[in-house]
């Protein structure tokens, strides 16, 4: 229950006590004004829709994330409705990032799993092509820094 403090400057004003009494009765009442101000706004409906969509997709993600491969889960990605920042990357960089995350790319383990006999499974530097190697290989690092 709310308590009200009477401000001395409002005392003695004709109708003030009656207005206070009516406001207090209205606040305690279950009656809602059915007028246009009681109707939802377009902005309010949009907020509710975004909140519902977020709750549904977040729940779906929490339920399905454990079924993803360990290699994918280690990235600890969140499910978002907004466009991810990664889409601002150049296509070649985005391609490599997605290959890294999904582990579906020009990697030794991928080629072995699908029995690609003629695949080149080693980097020109001599090491096996792995998702991690793509990030740390001196050739990739040099190429990345030259493009900046």
Automatic annotation (TrEMBL):
Gene3D superfamilies on file: Ribonuclease H-like superfamily/Ribonuclease H
InterPro entries noted in UniProt: RNaseH_domain (IPR002156), RNaseH_sf (IPR036397)
RNase H type-1 domain segment(s): 1-28
PROSITE patterns: RNASE_H_1
Superkingdom of origin organism: Eukaryota
GO function terms (MF aspect): nucleic acid binding; RNA-DNA hybrid ribonuclease activity
Protein's UniProt name: RNase H type-1 domain-containing protein
């Amino acid at each position: 229950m709310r308590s009200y403090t009477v401000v001395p400057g409002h005392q003695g004003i004709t109708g003030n006590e009656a207005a206070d009494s009516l406001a207090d009765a209205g606040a305690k009442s279950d009656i809602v004004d059915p007028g246009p101000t009681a109707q939802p706004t377009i902005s309010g409906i949009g907020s509710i829709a975004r909140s519902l969509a977020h709750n549904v997709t977040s729940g779906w993600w929490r339920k399905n994330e454990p079924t993803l491969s360990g290699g994918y889960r280690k990235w600890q990605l969140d499910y978002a409705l907004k466009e991810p920042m990664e889409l601002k990357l150049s296509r070649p960089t985005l391609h490599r990032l997605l290959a890294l995350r999904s582990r579906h790319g020009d990697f030794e383990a991928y080629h072995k799993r699908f029995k690609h006999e003629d695949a080149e499974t080693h980097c020109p530097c001599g090491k096996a092509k792995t998702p991690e190697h793509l990030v740390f290989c001196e050739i990739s690092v040099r190429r990345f820094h030259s493009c900046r």
